[in-house]
Write a structure and sequence with these properties.
The chain has two domains: 283 residues, 3-Layer(aba) Sandwich (D-Maltodextrin-Binding Protein, domain 2), CATH 3.40.190.10; 210 residues, Dipeptide-binding Protein, Domain 3 (Dipeptide-binding Protein, domain 3, Roll). It contains twelve helices and 21 strands. A hairpin with a 5-residue loop joins strand 6 and strand 7. It is an alpha+beta fold. The N terminus is likely disordered.
Length: 551
Amino acid sequence: MGRKWGRWLLAGALVVAAACGGDDDDDDAGAPATDAPAATDSGSEGTEPAGSEGTAGADTTEGATATTAGDAELDPDGTLRIATFASLLWDPALSPSSYTITYLGLVYDRLVHTAPDGSLVPGLAESWEYSDDGTVLTFHLREGVTFQDGEPFDAEAVKANIERSKTIEGSTVASELASIDEVVVVDPLTVELHLSTPDATLPAVFCGRAGAMISPASLDDPALDHNPVGTGMFKLVEFAEGSDFTLERWDGYWDPDAVKVRRIQVRVLPDTATRVNAVRSGEVDIAPIEPADVATLENVDGVTVRLNKTLRYVYLAMNTAKEPLGDLRVRQAIMHAIDREALVNGPFFGYGVPTQQPWPEGYFPHVPELDDTYPYDPERARELLAEAGHPDGFSADIIVVPSPEVYALLGEAVQAQLGEVGIDLRIQITSPTELGTAMYADKTAAFALLYTNGSVDPAQTVGSRFSASGFFNAGKYSTPRLEELYQQALTTTDDEARTQVMQDISREVVEQVLDMPLFFAQEPEAISDRVVGYESFFTGRPEFRGVGVTG
């Protein structure tokens, strides 16, 4: 087959929760996005341990929609087969990772959906708006929707779900809903959220687990985690904890045209080689793969490798409480000492886009000129270190996980680059499950090599990573300007004004080196040519609406 080259879209990723540990910004937990402006009329990040066209092999697209079947007729009784890294819990309020909404959302529809470009669009809520002072958010609900058990979906159901998510022991979404003081049922199709303070992130929050609506009759069901009941496109029909699961079309879904297959089978295949073999043999239709595996699928007939553009980026996490990282000149020196192009072209086989800011080109907080702030310049790095009183450099510990191997190799590459300017990095190998604790709780090292998935709303990322109170700000360092802008981002609901605020935040983050981004990962994904309509989502959370398969 000939090569299929696509273009970067304002879209991104698939089903990706890495097998390695890290942080999840919108979870404030240590596990595996779409930052989008909060919608004000109709219409949470994940951090974990951490291309060029010519290297992509045959049948490679960048960020495109998988519609290779052309005008081929879809099979309404077909099965879409997906490979993923891990199984999941079916209680949205207790699910430990924001990534799981990719599958939870198939059973539990959400109040708000996302478009491929990251914008917010109506779901179970047809529209929403804030009061003039920003302290009341009103949702207008879709009429005629029922749960899979026949219970009506209405304002009372929304109230019951939100109150449970705020109060249930072990809730992983309670922090996202903390600004909600009271949920008021105005009428069966109108619900008001009365807020303790304006919170512009809430519409985006309801795209995720907090917006997944459970049947009121099942809210107290102890078997909920194995017997989910929602208003979604599919029902769970087969499930073994920690293993594969099968979803079957629910004929009562409110938008039947969105459902193009009879069932979805999800295979849990943690091992990359197993996923590659499953693609080659035709056992699965969609699977995330590693950069090193792209060439393996180069000559496989009927398979396209897509390079997804997402909010996920690899970065050097730092603890500014560890001297001398509290000195801006030292942080600037590190930024100048890193050759991002070399890091991408080495361990990541060219599948990445170097960056110095936390949001990618084409996304509204991105400021184009900021990516030239710290060009690779070892001599300038040495000058800055000398100005800061460290002419001979300094020593520090960096946490790196051993698997996948690409992150271990990346850690060695960063170690070598900083060594060139006198910074001696001592690598600490830590298991993926202990990485988050070591960096953010025990705080045993100055650095860690991580990646972040990004949050549904960019202000969530700011709060968790750059604000002094953020869990993933190990050194608790911030600036008065950043804190002021963060509060503006939370209280500004006008899209144009919010874009300006977020771009000002980007400038402060880069100029004060509150983050040390390395590159945005181009995430390879193998897709069978029998799949039609499968779009790349900037959030990294595909919705599977309108996705079908040919016979």
